[in-house]
């Protein structure tokens, strides 16, 4: 029996090549090795206010991009989180066994709440409880493996802590998700700020290459990417911006290290950027064509999402029933 793998993306901002190379491409690679569940985590998105119409549109956009990127809906379950009520139900039960001190120590809560004025008055409780909902997402499906980046490692560790606490209080109930993960994809940095990870929430127009950016815009963004003061690629002294452009090319192309050095050593930056842009565009054009095909048939996408929810709901409901029974709650 294959181990179950779970991962997800919030339907906010615009998915970009960092999301693709860091997550989606890797999901496509591993999906047939596991029982795979890939989730659009819309309940997480509403920890801050979202325009309802835009959120609905983004949920469908992200789902379509999953499929366009190569997720096989016949094999993998593509699920909208809020379509499976058991996510929220389990989150409440886990909230009741999670010490609040654990949540106040979460670095993302401290960072995000600090960005809002009058912290105690304006920060929604959902921002504090977010990690418990993430733990519920994982534990709901008894997922053995959760491929996440470094920025989510603390949340995964908390999910393990919550599972361990629940199991110690009520008996063995949850599978302990592994922290030794399948290889995650490349860590892609911002084109304008190569010392910061490429982000969906960044506002700079030259920061990220969106998966749905017009091709001319893709080229312009890469041609304007930050490099360094050297005139050409020097693998011994290159700056972060040049290293990032090379990482993007290597992640898309699969080129080995020795071949990368042979190809790019001494290449002037204008030629480097043209080469990287060509490689990115070569991959985005078919992805965008497939995306347009998917969204042109709303019934097809709705069918995939309905099938995904129907496929995972028995697993989710079974876990909720087990947790209720363990805790002494009413079950019919």
Brief summary of the model shown:
It contains 14 helices and 3 strands.
The whole-angstrom Rg is 21 Å
* Domain count: 2
Annotated CATH topology of the largest domain: Rossmann fold
Q: Helical stretch count?
A: 14
H and E string? EHEHHEHHHHHHHHHHH
CATH architecture title of the largest domain: 3-Layer(aba) Sandwich
Derived from helix and strand composition plus strand pairing, the structural class reads: mainly alpha
Q: Tell me about the biggest sheet?
A: 3 strands, parallel
User: Which shape, going by the Cα principal axes?
Assistant: globular
The mean pLDDT is 93
Instruction: Extract low-pLDDT stretches.
Output: none
CATH superfamily of the largest domain: HUPs
Strand content: under 5%
Q: What is the CATH C level class of the largest domain, in words?
A: Alpha Beta
Instruction: Please give the number of β-strands.
Output: 3
Assign a percent range to the helix content.
Answer: 55-70%
How far is the first residue's CA from the last residue's CA? 30 Å
Give keywords.
mainly alpha; Rossmann fold; Tyrosyl-Transfer RNA Synthetase; 14 helices; globular
Q: How would you describe what is shown here?
A:
The chain has two domains: 4-181 and 298-327, HUPs (Rossmann fold, 3-Layer(aba) Sandwich); 215-293, Tyrosyl-Transfer RNA Synthetase, CATH 1.10.240. The chain is globular. It is 56% helix and 5% strand. Helix 3 (52-69) packs across helix 13 (269-295). A three-stranded parallel sheet has the order 1-2-3. The protein is built from 14 helices and three strands. The mean pLDDT is 93. It starts with a strand and ends in a 5-residue tail after the last helix. The protein is mostly helical and 332 residues long.
